[in-house]
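Researcher: Go.
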Amino acid sequence: MKIIYNKLWKLLIDKNMNKVQLRDAADISSNSVAKLGKNEHVRMDVLLKIAEALDCKVEDLFETIREEDER
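Model: Structure:
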């Protein structure tokens, strides 16, 4: 499974926020924001902090997709 954070970026646009404002509002590290930007896995507590800061559910931040089997 692959995780995609496009929902998060769309939510930030709707709330007129940038990544720096998100980092400050959610009290998360720049490294975590960088991982999100690369669609890499982050800890659940980071996602919970973001959801709380944006007043949304965790599932509103990302979606998962199946990776095609490489044979």
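Model: The beta strands are 2-4, 63-65.
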